[in-house]
Design brief:
There is one protein chain. This protein is mainly alpha-helical and 114 residues long. The protein has a single domain, classed as Ribosomal protein L20, C-terminal domain (c-terminal domain of poly(a) binding protein), CATH 1.10.1900.20. The chain has helices spanning 7-20, 32-71, 76-85, 92-101, 103-113.
């Protein structure tokens, strides 16, 4: 009896990987073994960087809040400490947005904190 091989599924698996490799340079886009490695590595980077993006944005917000606080004679750490003690529970994303786009509102928060 001849060996039964599921070539339909094998072909589909390869097509799926090669479709994900679309846009890659050189053999990475059309040679199965090279494309498979490139796509796997790309997915690893994507997973890692979804987490790093959160870190980078938090750092950006902190820099923006610190710069706005310096204009009012406070450091970032002093501002956050006093805000916590006054029960101002705005997160860093909102504070950074206010500092960039609505200086009057941020100034009011700084006055409330002081």
């Amino acid at each position: 009896m001849p060996r039964s091989v599921n070539s339909v599924a094998s072909r589909a698996k390869r097509k799926k990987i090669l479709k994900q490799a679309k846009g890659y340079f050189g053999r990475r886009k059309n040679v199965w073994t090279v494309a498979k490695n490139a796509v796997e590595k790309g997915l690893v980077y994507a997973y890692r960087d979804r987490r790093n993006k959160k870190r980078n944005f938090r750092a950006l917000w902190i820099v923006r809040i610190n710069a706005a606080c310096k204009e009012h004679g406070l450091s970032y750490s002093e501002f956050m400490d006093k805000a916590k003690k006054k029960n101002i529970t705005l997160n860093r994303k909102v504070l950074a947005d206010l500092a960039m786009n609505n200086q009057n509102a941020f100034e009011a928060i700084v006055k409330a904190v002081k």
